[in-house]
Amino acid sequence: MVALAIAGFELVRRIRLLSTWVYFAVFFAAAALFTIAAGGGFKDSAVSFGSSKVMINAPYALSQTITVLGYLGVLVTAAMMGRAVQQDYEHETFHFYFTSPVKSSQYLAGR
Questions:
Q1: Which of 28, 62, 101, 105 is at a distance of 20 to 30 A from 72, taking alpha carbons?
Q2: pLDDT of the residue at 81
Q3: What pLDDT is attached to residue 71?
Q4: Neighbours of 31 (CB within 10 A)
Q5: 70 phi and psi, to 5 degrees?
Q6: Is the pTM of this model over 0.85?
Q7: Residue 73 is inside which H or E element, if any?
Q8: Is 59 exposed, middle or buried (0-12, 13-18, 19+ CB in 10 A)?
Q9: Helix H or strand E encompassing 28
Q10: 11-17: long-range contacts at Cβ-Cβ below 8 A with a sequence spacing of 24 or more?
Q11: Measuring CA to CA, how many Å separate 106 from each of 8, 14, 111?
Q12: E strands of 4-107, at which residues?
């Protein structure tokens, strides 16, 4: 329950930042452009899913697209949320978390 409270606080804090919305817009644009390119919307681009018989809305094509964009999203999310833990150590507020009944695993799961 403590991890959910910490995660909720961090989520509300992150939603207020401009960088969160910029990342959202960039990933939305990347997904849209990739889907348009795979569907043949651009004359000079070629996106292949292994065979010419695979349609853009096929489960295999969707799985590949979501996987690639998901991997990139995990990297960006880890970098954004890892900064919260680093700020706790920079400002020496981690002492307050570890002297309370919060376990270190709950703290890291919440952050």
A1: 105
A2: 75
A3: 93
A4: 15
A5: -65, -40
A6: no
A7: helix 59-90
A8: exposed
A9: helix 18-38
A10: 14/80, 14/81
A11: 13, 19, 8
A12: none
Cβ–Cβ under 8 Å, residues 23 and 76 = yes
- pLDDT tens digits, residue range 23-58? 899 989 988 888 888 878 888 877 777 767 777 778
Q: How far apart are the first and last CA of the chain?
A: 13
Find tokens 């880890």 and name the residue: 78
110 vs 82: CA distance, rounded Å: 11
Q: How confident is the model at residue 25, as a pLDDT?
A: 95
**Single-letter code of the amino acid located at 22:** V
Question: At residue 104, what is the residue type?
Answer: S
45: helix, strand or coil: coil
Cα separation, 83 vs 77, whole angstroms = 10
Q: Is 54 exposed, middle or buried (0-12, 13-18, 19+ CB in 10 A)?
A: middle
